[in-house]
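#random but structural
TW: two for the price of one
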Amino acid sequence: MPFRCAVLDDYQGVATTLADWSVPGEELEVVSFTEHFGNEDELVSALAGFDCVVTLRERVPFPATVLDRLPRLRLLIASGMRNSVIDYAAAKANGVTVCGTESSSTPPVELTWALLLGLARGLVEENTALREGGPWQSTVGADLHGRRLGLLGLGKIGSRVARVGLAFGMEVSAWSQNLTEERAAEVGARRASSREELLSESDFVSVHLALSERTRGLVGADELALLKPTAYLINTSRAAIVDQDALLAALREGRIAGAGVDVFDVEPLPADHPMRTAPRLLATPHLGYVSRANYERYYRQAVEGIRAYLTGAPVRVLG
């Protein structure tokens, strides 16, 4: 009987082309699913006949209610070395080994700047007008040089975003609950004394915090009200850090200049979700980590993880 592996949410249909899925001495059968499963019953039904599942980022939760219903599952491989939607205790109780892969912070840094620049220079509006025979120039771009970039979070991703901002000639401020002046100075940023100060003084605010109970809802209606009417908000981190209803209200009422968003409270985003039609919003379908080099890393190390597991020496074990 072959060792059967399911690859979830392979939206672009590239998983089997970016890695060599052969396992010496073993018959490995790989099935790629290009559509997202809408509920646990659909997921369990689809995965019932698999020994291994490869899941991308935190797109698909694996709580006990799923793991308890997959008796054949033995190996779960997640991209990245941290995953908040896998119940590790339930995996262990069901004899499921959970492994991860390395992940580069470069793609989300680059996407953050794609969104920020797209907003600042009205690229969507201008491109649409040019293609559809609309007006020749209808927006006045926002300058970056000399403006303040405020970063909520100055970790691995935030610090790299900061350095790009400095290269554009921006003033960079940062804030997080544990950020020190010394750490901020290491990347050329100034530590804001408070979240409120950072929000009220910045021309561009970018979110780079991990989601936790401390950061959930960190930017709500009161915080958004502190932003300048000419300010832009960018979130490539986690949707729940920014109150989605409050953000929609700020965009609809024109209380901020715009927002660039790559993460949503429900993914994939339903066709009738209000984020799809919100004004002043530049949105992408959670592309933060989606790049060829990163996908090659994910899938090649997933295969490496399968090979290691089958030899009895699993690598990059999580939980």
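TW: number two ↓
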Amino acid sequence: MIVTRKGNLARYLYGASSNVKRNLMPAYALQWRAIRDMRSAGCTYYDFFGIPPFAEKGHPMYGLYQFKIGFGGQAVHTPGAWDLPVRPLLYQLYRWAEFLRMYYLRVLRKR
């Protein structure tokens, strides 16, 4: 997992786990340790950095929502990340490549 700290704010940026011994819930233990370490370092806020906008059981990220909300606290919705293209032509090519990739994953691959 990757956690950053600036002033009194800690931000959980990324984490991953596998299905190996998932029943032991190692991700919960690791997250709790990070929260405690950041608190010891003087942080008063711990940002889980992203949940789905609505708590819908059918949402593909509902499990992640439950994991993050399960630690308590409150959900705070912010505008999110924005792109600032410094090379507009390359950015447009990138956007098209992303569109084609998603089209392939969602439509063509399923056929």
